[in-house]
Design brief:
Layout lengths: L1 H19 L16 E5 L9 E5 L10 H7 L6 H13 L7 H7 L2 H8 L12 H9 L11 E7 L2 E6 L2 E5 L2 E3 L6 H4 L4 H7 L3 E12 L9 E2 L12 E5 L11 E6 L10 H14 L4 E15 L2 H5 L2 H7 L6 E3 L9 H15 L2
Parallel strand pairs: 6-12
Antiparallel strand pairs: 1-2, 3-4, 4-5, 7-10, 7-11, 8-9, 9-10
Helix pairs in contact: 1-5
InterPro entries: FAD/NAD-bd_sf
Organism: human gut metagenome
Protein name: Aminooxidase
Length: 349
């Protein structure tokens, strides 16, 4: 189709630049990027997460907001191609998010898969089933439904209070949001300084059912609502199963915040999203579930360029503490797992 050819054309120019001028851009993690180097597992299918490293001063450009990055490289036409699977999925607007986050998630290979009809699929029992299965096969399964209320690092040991009981450990790996450690842990001044710079997105979703007999058979993007001026509006509704499953809710996706701007209140975002559904002919008859997510922890362009990641990576192992989780890679399952795997390779083998 002509529309697909236009999208592929827009993608091709930027993809070529990424493979040449920005070699190393897609390496997992962020260490070295603000200094013009790359180091980590390469996610390309050919490399199969092999460890690579090198120097490329052009990578410093990845610290600037993605909109500025596209303008610098005269690739503004690629905005629409990258915006759909990024902004509507809750990761923020291109005038605020450093290009590194956009391109480590939506590298050229991944974008091509998004544009290839029939190449997207979902887990039949949801992604939680994956981790339940993994946990069932561990020699030492994870302790679930537990609340950590205090962590103290002293005498070359780590003392963790969990479910009211204090236990002693040799090492600590923090995989939960690092800024929350400031509340229940014993943070050093450098940890306070760095972790307080982390920001996140307010991502609002609803599972809804339109009036009977009016359910669509497809998902739909609202590109005009993927701007900071229209935050709080519906960006996409998601029709999950397309193989004849008629009895299913639609899921709506809405962003409520933008760096340096006032948040859209929860109730206002809900009201606006429902009105948007009605405007597109899908008046909601029933709301089955509402979630307002803590989403996509990251740092802004200035802190990225100032070496936030290099400073955190330099602390790895200090006080027997290591740092992982979303913010160290990206806010999706694949990148987070890849980073964790590499952390083990670097420090525990």
């Amino acid at each position: 189709p002509i529309a697909m050819l236009k999208k592929l054309s827009k993608m091709k120019k930027l993809s070529k630049l990424l493979e040449t001028k920005y070699k190393g851009y897609d390496v997992n993690g962020h260490r070295g990027i603000s200094e013009g180097r790359y180091e980590g597992p390469c996610p390309s299918p050919e490399m199969k997460l092999a460890h690579i490293e090198g120097v490329n001063p052009n990578l410093k450009d990845l610290s600037m907001p993605f909109s500025e990055f596209l303008k610098l490289n005269h690739c503004e036409d690629a905005t629409t191609v990258w915006k759909g699977p990024f902004t509507s999925f809750g990761y923020g607007y291109f005038d605020e998010i450093p290009a590194a986050y956009v391109l480590k998630y939506l590298d050229a290979f991944t974008v091509k898969q998004f544009l290839s009809t029939g190449k997207l699929w979902t887990w039949y029992d949801g992604t939680q089933s994956i981790w339940e299965g993994v946990n069932n096969h561990l020699k030492h399964p994870a302790l679930l439904n537990s609340e950590v209320t205090n962590i103290k690092r002293e005498n070359d040991k780590v003392f963790v209070t969990v479910n009211g009981k204090t236990e002693e450990f040799d090492k600590l790996i923090i995989c939960t949001p690092l800024e929350l450690f400031l509340g229940y842990g014993d943070p050093r001044e450098e940890e306070k300084d760095l972790f307080s710079k982390i920001v996140h997105k307010e991502y609002f979703t609803m599972a809804v059912r339109p009036e009977e007999g009016n359910a669509p058979e497809i998902s739909y993007y609202f590109f005009e609502n993927m701007t900071n001026e229209t935050r709080g509006h519906l960006m996409v509704f998601y029709h999950r199963w397309s193989d004849g499953v008629t009895d299913q809710p639609l899921v709506t996706f809405t962003l409520r915040n933008h760096e340096g701007m006032e948040d859209v209140p929860f109730d206002k975002a809900k009201e606006t999203t429902l009105k948007d559904m009605e405007l597109c002919g899908l008046k909601v008859d029933k709301i089955e579930r509402i979630d307002d997510w803590y989403y996509f922890p990251h740092v802004g362009s200035k802190d990225y360029a100032d070496g936030w990641y290099e400073k955190v990576e330099a602390m790895q192992g200090k006080d027997n503490t290591f740092y992982a989780g979303e913010v160290m890679a990206f806010g999706d399952m694949e990148e987070t797992v890849e980073y964790s795997r590499d952390l083990v390779r670097r420090f525990f083998k």
